[in-house]
User: Which sequence fits this backbone?
């Protein structure tokens, strides 16, 4: 049961909805009565993507399709991957990414829709031993779009995986990452930012399963919601029996800037091993009024002070992006939204 | 300069200031002393426009302009600066970024051009040097993890850089050891000028050994209970506030 299979079979009964615990807060079954017609091929100009300047290898998927990205053992690559939806049809895309031993990849991925499309992108990301990837995802969907991205990540020992998912929501938007973590000194960073206004909805869901000893996971997600927007964070870390010396930390912090905005958060640690260091923190609140007054007393008008404080709040996540070029793109993107 | 007339103010529905009047001409430093709960911090927040401090009667003007009608940032742009008793920590915002944003906001409000980056850094280096603040500290998030003394010095640094016309120092001596107190007082004294006025709020006389006031006022029961020269501070140190509190009750 998934959006992709519902699109394929043109059957709304296959849409995930409230009855599935994981989809409780992003109920597609209740939302979509009739699936839109399959998207047509699009041949027009698609302009530039947000990361085009940062990668020579540029891939574009329009209204579905398949892409493969392979980095050979010991190789190095930077890819800007644009996943575009044009129009208001339904479609699904597939992306397979494989990294050989000790290969390195910068994956700069963007979701860009321009109307009420219904789409799912399914990714598989496989890292051989010692491989390293940084995946930065910028999801800038249309307010009428329904967009789901599901990535299944398979790590190997000594692999290094860094991810930052940044989103501004959609009518319904879900960005999901599931990671099989073998331990073996593989490290995982799984970060997220969501900045929502209007009636936008963004769901960032992650599931990490530590299956072996000596694995590390560091997770930090921050969100800012205003108007009637709704942010959803579901983070689950499972430490399997015997996965000792796992170090897993999860943080989710959100600012709610209006009375009608909403944040639903479910951080979960399921630990079946004995010798682990795990922690999670979750806070949802308003901007610190004392700090706001302090900044205004120094001469900043309220809008300037609020933007500065919210940018700083998000900045902690942005600063964790390894690649400076992507960090700058994300920081500018966030600043533009927060100052609006 | 600052003229406060018959000021009444409530916090959470409770009247704290009950007819306070004060006149601080340009070039003068006035101290306000008083027991805990007399309304000293309330006065500083009312003058700077903090939410939740409601003026029910009276007026406060700066050079004839009604301060109470202005937003906090508009008051700041007109030159009102409050050195906080408990300076806030601002995670994620380097001190330099914070001060520059504030400075340019004030300049914009006054119709002046923004300060250039080189000019700003030069000024920051100079003032930090004078206040014996390690310049690298200004690259860190403002006040985050700073000691009490460092936070107070950072207040004075902001004051020196923003160059306000009217300064309010709220319990600036609290949390300072004697060396830090001297550095902070030197920084404040360097700002004394015929064009500036200062209001120094303090519980203890100690600070006034370093920043000599022209006038000393006793705040008790929400109004000025007595006024005098610097000698009044010494008298309070010897005799305490008790008789003023009794009279106000």
Assistant:
């Amino acid at each position: 049961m998934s959006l992709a299979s519902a699109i394929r079979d043109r059957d709304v009964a296959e849409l995930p909805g409230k009855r599935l615990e994981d989809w409780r807060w992003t109920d597609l079954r209740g939302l979509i009565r009739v699936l839109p017609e399959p998207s047509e091929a699009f041949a027009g100009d698609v302009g530039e993507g947000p990361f085009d300047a940062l990668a020579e290898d540029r891939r574009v998927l329009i209204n579905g399709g398949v892409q493969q990205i392979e980095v050979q053992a010991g190789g190095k690559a930077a890819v800007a991957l644009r996943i575009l939806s044009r129009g208001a049809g339904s479609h699904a895309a597939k992306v397979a990414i494989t990294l050989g031993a000790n290969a390195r990849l910068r994956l700069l991925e963007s979701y860009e829709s321009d109307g009420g499309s219904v789409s799912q992108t399914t990714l598989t990301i496989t890292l051989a031993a010692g491989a390293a990837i940084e995946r930065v995802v910028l999801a800038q969907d249309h307010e009428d779009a329904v967009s789901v991205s599901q990535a299944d990540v398979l790590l190997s020992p000594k692999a290094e995986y860094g991810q930052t998912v940044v989103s501004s929501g959609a009518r319904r938007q879900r960005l999901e990452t599931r990671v099989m973590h073998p331990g073996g000194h593989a490290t995982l960073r799984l970060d997220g930012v969501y900045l929502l206004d209007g009636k936008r909805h963004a769901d960032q869901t992650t599931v990490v399963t530590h299956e072996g000893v000596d694995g590390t996971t560091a997770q930090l997600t921050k969100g800012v919601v205003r108007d009637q927007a709704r942010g959803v964070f579901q983070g689950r870390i499972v430490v399997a029996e015997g996965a000792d010396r796992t170090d897993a930390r999860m943080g989710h912090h959100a600012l709610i800037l209006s009375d009608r905005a909403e944040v639903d958060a479910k951080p979960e640690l399921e630990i079946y091993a004995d010798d682990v260091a795990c922690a999670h923190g979750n806070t949802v609140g308003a901007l610190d009024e004392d700090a706001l007054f302090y900044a205004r007393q120094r001469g900043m008008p309220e809008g300037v002070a609020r933007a500065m404080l919210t940018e700083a709040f998000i900045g902690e996540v942005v600063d964790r992006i390894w690649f400076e070029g992507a960090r700058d793109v994300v920081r500018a993107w966030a600043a533009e939204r927060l100052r609006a | 300069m600052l003229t406060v007339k018959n000021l009444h103010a409530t916090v959470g529905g409770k009247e704290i200031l009950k007819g306070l009047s004060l006149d601080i001409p340009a070039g003068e430093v006035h101290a306000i002393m008083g027991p805990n709960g007399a309304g000293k911090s309330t006065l500083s927040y009312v003058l700077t426009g903090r939410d939740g401090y409601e003026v029910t009667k009276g007026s406060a003007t700066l050079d004839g302009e009604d301060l109470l009608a202005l937003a906090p940032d508009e008051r700041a742009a007109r030159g009102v600066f409050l050195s906080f008793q408990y300076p806030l920590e601002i995670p994620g915002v380097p001190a330099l970024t914070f001060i520059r944003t504030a400075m340019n906001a004030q300049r914009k409000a006054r119709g002046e051009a923004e300060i250039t980056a080189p000019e700003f850094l030069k000024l920051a280096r100079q003032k930090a040097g004078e206040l014996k603040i390690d310049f690298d500290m200004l690259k860190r998030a403002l006040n985050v993890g700073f000691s009490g003394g460092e936070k107070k010095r950072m207040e004075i640094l902001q004051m020196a850089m923003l160059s306000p016309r009217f300064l309010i120092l709220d319990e600036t001596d609290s949390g300072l050891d004697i060396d830090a107190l001297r550095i902070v007082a030197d920084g404040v004294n360097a700002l004394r000028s015929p064009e500036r006025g200062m209001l120094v709020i303090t519980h203890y006389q100690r600070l006034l050994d370093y920043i000599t006031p022209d006038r000393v006022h006793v705040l008790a029961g929400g109004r000025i209970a007595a006024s005098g020269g610097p000698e009044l501070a010494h008298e309070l140190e010897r005799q305490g506030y008790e008789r003023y509190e009794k009279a106000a009750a």
Q: What stands out?
A: The first helix of chain B runs from residue 40 to 48. Chain B touches chain A through 32 residues (CB under 8 Å). Chain B has one domain: 2-248. DSSP finds eight helices and ten strands in chain B.
